[in-house]
Specification:
Length: about 375
């Protein structure tokens, strides 16, 4: 049976253009980018070209970008780097209850070092009220971190409004854009952010590469100590082929942002599900302020994992898990106040550039058989 991939929020395949750009740096250009000879110079030039390509997608200066090993490292660097650089000013950080573990866990780590973290709740659609951020600010607040779009339900936050509040109070503002980049506009000037995290493997670059945008003038404590790579901000010989890949992926992503191909198929998927299942299927997340590729639905009264287990050729994600006879469902859905009966039936379908309507029609038919 044909394999169907509907898990593009988990990871994407490497785009052919990206692979092509990377290949010479896996095979021929092996020099160390720090070496000032014939072997090192092309590697260094390739990194700087990639930096410009990423800057093009984010609308920032190339020197505001630090290459990292991915979204997790970018988030860790932002949260811990800001805390250690600013702890003389205060120990309070504001974030939300629906962040990825790559934000929640660094925050929990900092709590052990006397940080005071406020986890702002969300409404039933997964939206953060910017006013609740304003109300949480204290004289000790040094950082606000709110994800641009949620990985599970796709809800997009009003980052511009929240960053405005942060700027008024001269508080550093970070957003985790791992899921939004390449899907919706992510110009740092529109978002008004000081720090922004990118994960390469969500935008058709390889796994294990990412970027942290650090606005000019913002100083974070160094996260990775060693030699002077990345203008002294992240030590370690650069992962040249992957950086080249990320650059090419960002260049490519510019032609996808704002297009409707994926959204149109996603919307048809939702419509077909509604026609087929009526009130037995519920949408999780915001109806309109949502990533164009994400469809998180609950089959009420059913168990998402059980449905997926009957479709071995389908790659999709369920937020629920069974532990010793009890069903646990996603902390994101819990924070949204989704009742257990609905939450345990959740499945996240995330579409990508190669998804076809034929695949979706097959999916709906298969779901019809399983659910009935
Ligand atoms: C919102 C969000 N942030 C961070 C990450 C972590 O990125 P990486 O897998 O590159 O470490 C992910 C990956 O799932 C994500 O969805």
């Amino acid at each position: 049976m044909k394999k169907i991939y509907l898990d593009f929020n988990a990871s994407t395949p490497i785009a052919p253009e990206v692979l092509e750009a990377m290949e010479p740096f896996l095979r021929d250009h092996y020099g160390n980018p720090s070496s000032r000879h014939w072997a090192g110079i092309p590697a260094k030039q390739a990194i700087e070209h990639a930096r410009e390509q990423v800057a093009g997608l984010l609308g920032c200066f190339p020197d505001e970008l630090v290459f990292t090993s991915g979204g997790t490292e970018s988030n860790n660097h932002a949260i811990k780097g800001a805390f250690f650089a600013l702890k003389h000013r205060g120990n309070h950080i504001i974030t939300t209850q629906i962040e990825h573990p790559a934000i929640i866990k660094p925050c929990q780590f900092l709590e052990k070092l006397d940080a005071n973290i406020t986890y702002i709740p969300v409404d039933q659609h997964g939206k953060v009220d910017p006013e609740s951020i304003r109300n949480a600010i204290t004289s000790k607040t040094i950082l606000i971190s709110v994800m641009h779009a949620n990985n599970e339900v796709g809800t997009i936050q009003d980052i511009g409004q929240i960053s405005h509040i942060a700027r008024e109070q001269e508080i550093l503002f970070h957003t985790d854009a791992a899921q939004s980049i390449g899907k919706i506009p992510t110009l740092v000037s529109d978002l008004g952010v000081d720090l922004l995290s990118v994960a390469g493997h969500k935008i058709y670059a390889p796994k294990g590469i990412g970027v942290l945008y650090i606005r000019r003038g913002v100083n974070l404590e160094i996260f990775m100590h060693g030699a002077g790579h990345e203008a002294g901000r992240r030590a370690g010989t650069e992962n040249v082929p992957y950086i080249v890949g990320l650059g090419a992926a960002c260049e490519l992503a510019r032609s996808w942002v704002g297009t409707t191909q994926i959204k149109d198929i996603r919307d048809q998927f939702w419509q077909l599900l509604q026609e087929e299942f009526g009130e037995r299927v519920v949408l999780n997340g915001h109806l309109t302020k949502r990533l164009p590729n994400t469809l998180n639905v609950s089959f009420v009264g059913m168990f998402g994992a059980e449905i997926l287990s009957q479709m071995e050729n389908v790659a999709a994600t369920t937020g629920s898990a069974c532990h010793e006879g009890t069903v646990e469902f996603s902390p994101v859905l819990k924070a949204m106040g989704v009742p257990a009966k609905t939450g345990m039936g959740a499945i996240r379908f995330s579409l990508g550039r190669t998804t076809t309507i034929t695949e979706i029609e097959w999916m709906v038919n298969r779901l019809k058989n399983i659910v009935s």
